[in-house]
Specification:
- This protein has 152 residues and is of the alpha+beta class.
- The chain has one domain.
- Helix content is 30%, strand content 16%.
- The strands form 3 sheets. A 4-stranded antiparallel beta sheet has the order 3-6-5-4, with helices on one face. Strands 1-8 form a two-stranded antiparallel sheet. It has a two-stranded antiparallel ribbon with strand order 2-7.
- The protein is globular and about 55 Å long.
Length: 152
Amino acid sequence: MSEPTKGFICYAAGYKYQLRQDAVAESGIALQTPVTHEYFTISESGLITVKRGYAWDGASSVAIDDPGTIYASLFHDAGYQAIRCGLIDGRWRKELDAMYRQLCINGGVFPARAEAHYLALRIGGGQYNKLVSSDYPSIIICLVSLVMHSPQ
């Protein structure tokens, strides 16, 4: 029998998805040095590896989440996070947006819809890289005095 959890639990709100296993995609960027982050890496050749446990919110704006956009948004969000955290230069935003479009198409999104998403990213995506950001979510919820028992 497991011991009960006592005291506080804290979790981040605002995310829809959490990765259950590592995922890899080509980004189209080329770096002088590789990037290593707790939840993702980007190789010199632009290979993005997002690690198990990474949380993200799917496609932004009025996008409808489906397998193709969810998949594409995972790598796009990690790339934008790398820009916000100063790990890669913001000049790579266009390549990350193009990667999103291609991953959408590869995932079964109708090409015209993928192009519309791409254009929306080109027009409005830059605002997300100007936000003051840390690696941690802005909404943290803590629940106090919980006692939970595991099933026996």
